[in-house]
Amino acid sequence: MGNCVTRSLMSGDIIDAPAPEPIDKWEIFDRIGYHPTHREVVRFHNSTARTKVCSAPRRSTKSYAAAKDVLAGILTENTRTWIVGPNYGLAEKEFRYIHADLVINRKKLGLPKPLQVFSNPRSALFIRFPWGSIVEGKSADNPESLLGEAVDQVIYSEAAQLPRVIRERYVQPTVITKKGIEIVPTTPDQGGEWVHELIERSSQEDGCSIDSFHWGVDANPTYDMQEFERAKKFYGADSPTFREQYLGEWVFYGGRVYPVFDERVHVIEPFDIPVDWPVLRGIDFGHRDPFVTLGCAVGPSSELYFFQEYYDRAGKGIRDHSTAIKADYAGRRVTVSVGDPAAAQSIDDLCFEGVSVTPGNNDRTAGRMRVLEYMQPTEDGVAPWPLRDLPIALKAKWPRLYVFSTMKETLRELRYFRWKEAGKGEGDRERTEGEDHAMDAMRYIVMTRPSPYRMMPRVPRNSFKGWLNRVAVDRTIQSYIGRH
């Protein structure tokens, strides 16, 4: 579009003009020739939620729809609209759509010339209208520019590529001041933890505060469906790349520390842990960071069940934590309790309060590899306890590590725990990002166990020793079933 100024504010040649008469959003759409027909896109435009999150594949009109959705607000007197992108180049996309409707094609709406326009995607994206409203592109590369102004509307361009801090520390406070609107269009991306959390929260709220939307490439009438089919054939329908980029699904495959973790396999519904099963406990200490305790039961075939979590963000003292831990594990057969070896004093303090803890193994590389070994489905893996009586044909491979569906914070960390973009320094490739407090506690626990590959059965099943092993397992199963 180039860099142009249609009228200079410095010249004093400013013409005050009233805002256009209030126009219904759909009347604006009709005048500019925008006629969405996809049901989910229509629901997006009709939503009155203050935060609207749209996750969709690339080139599925999500940015186009977001730009159209803010037009009515821009045509209101003295409003300020921001388009915040990872850089000016990405913010320019929504800005370009607005520029086309309200500057280039303004006569369709009967609008006067804007007072000032900068449309250089490398340095400045800015429009000032005669009725006092402003549209401005912002770059997350310069977060200080996001301070100070109250904003009526904001579009987070490619939101999943924006750091969480951009919204929570810089932008959201400016929107809250004026009870403004946030529009969050994005293609799913491994860095979009905060966007995915908003989507999860939308299912728990009434739709007035947060609403989420998802549509496919069929929302774009000009999309080449032959390209879609070629990608499906090339990547495979179940490929994480295809599901993320072409279906708009949140799969968090790229750069994950535990890529084999699959909620369809590893997450199970809770069951009553038999009282005679050994319980392992891992603790990651924190005050400003969360204080986390995980409980893990060891099944009859040495499989691991993570069933209990204590995840405190309130900054409590050791005595409060110890009281909660003792209540959680009352009546349990806790055989091992390990904590962060770097927190020697906290370990001593917990022991003084009656919670036994020993320093854990903090070898991060070996610990993550050990967790992966337990997560990896293998032919000699172990089906989860509630499914033990299923025919083996129903599942060829099973892991040796399971997580109860009630462990919300642990599952959240597992979804988002990923490798950090590698630097050039020694050890940079081993750095991670995302909260790892439950991940550390899990690692301490698993490092108290031998490698699962060392536990592969070496005794012939039909031998006398093999018969004794089967009898021991059957007795454990029968004692559990007999109590239920």
What does this molecule look like?
It is a single chain. The radius of gyration is 28 Å and the shape is elongated. The strands form 3 sheets. The protein has an 8-stranded mixed β-sheet with strand order 3-4-5-2-6-7-1-8, sandwiched between helices. A 7-stranded mixed β-sheet has the order 9-15-12-11-10-13-14. It is α/β, with parallel strands linked by helices. The chain has 3 domains: 25-219, P-loop containing nucleotide triphosphate hydrolases (Rossmann fold), CATH 3.40.50.300; 225-254, no CATH class; 264-483, Nucleotidyltransferase, domain 5 (2-Layer Sandwich), CATH 3.30.420.280. The N and C termini lie far apart (72 Å). It is built from 16 helices and 17 strands.
CATH architecture of the largest domain: 2-Layer Sandwich
Mean pLDDT: 86
Number of domains: 3
Q: Low-confidence stretches at least 5 residues in length (pLDDT < 50)?
A: 1-15
Helix content: 25-40%
Question: Helix count, per DSSP?
Answer: 16
What is the CATH C level class of the largest domain, in words? Alpha Beta
Q: Tell me, what's the shape?
A: elongated
- Terminal Cα span: 72 Å
Structural class: alpha/beta
Which band does the percent of strand residues land in? Answer: 15-25%
How many strand units?
17
How would a crystallographer describe the biggest sheet?
A: 8 strands, mixed
Structural Rg: 28 Å
